[in-house]
Amino acid sequence: IGYYAPVAPAFLPIILQKLQEQSPDLKFSLQECDNITAQSGLLDGTLDIALFAGDDLLTGVETRPLMDLPPYALLPEGHALATADVLQFSDLNNVPLVLLDLPVAGAYVRGLFRTTGVTPDIVATASSVEMVRSLVGAGMGAAVLNMRPRTTLSYGGDALRTIPLIDGASLNLVSGRAAGAPRRLVQVFQDTLHSWFNSPAALDLIAQPP
């Protein structure tokens, strides 16, 4: 299973544990990867299924939509903007920004700022969500993310707030596999995955306006 979903640890273990309860002999191999590496793995057979942001698709990869992920502002507790119910990108003008600088994610966030006419003041970049969250928690700046974990604390133990950004386009999360009839186990996993994303629990992954 490949995943380009920064907070996959918030939901994948639950899904895999349910499958293992049903079939105790199952073994899983998880690989964190970027969008293109995930799809390439599907095509060369090193991955059976992958979760990724579904804008740039390679020929031969079939996808199913999982969830639209709207953007939100991540802020340290006590920040001047942290008490708002919703924010717009203009509210982040002149606010120091910590950027999740990964393929797709980095370009997506830069594109949101460009579309809304705001020039981001990027003070730090990081290649993992937890480093971004910890930098924000330490007070270095705000961040724009799409999926949120089930904790409001950073690795450093700092309290964080997630505020919906109401004027930014969503990022589309999909599951993908190589075209053609899948093995039964792959189909079972994909169906179980989509069933979970259609449940109320999946809504915890996104920041929604009140």
Layout: helices, strands, pairs:
Layout: E1 2-3, H1 12-22, E2 31-32, H2 35-44, E3 50-53, E4 61-69, E5 72-76, E6 96-100, H3 105-116, E7 121-126, H4 129-137, E8 143-145, E9 160-164, E10 171-178, H5 184-197
Parallel strand pairs: 1-2, 1-3, 6-7
Antiparallel strand pairs: 3-10, 4-10, 5-8, 5-9
The Rg value, from CA coordinates, equals 18 Å
Q: Could you tell me the strand content as a percent range? A: 15-25%
The helix content is 25-40%
> Oligomerization state of this entry?
single chain
Secondary-structure element order, N to C: EHEHEEEEHEHEEEH
Count of DSSP helices? Answer: 5
Largest sheet: 5 strands, mixed
Residue ranges: pLDDT <50 for 5 or more in a row? none
Number of E-type strands: 10
Please report the distance between the alpha carbons of the first and last residues: 34 Å
Q: Averaging pLDDT over every residue, what do you get?
A: 94
Structural class: alpha/beta
The order of strands across the largest sheet is 2-1-3-10-4
Shape: globular
Tell me what the structure shows.
- Helices cover 27% and strands 23% of the residues.
- It is an alpha/beta fold and 210 residues long.
- It has a 5-stranded mixed beta sheet with strand order 2-1-3-10-4, sandwiched between helices.
- Helix 1 (12-22) packs across helix 5 (184-197).
- The protein starts with a strand and ends in a 13-residue tail after the last helix.
Features:
single chain; 210 residues; five-stranded mixed β-sheet; three-stranded antiparallel β-sheet; 5 helices; 10 strands; 23% strand
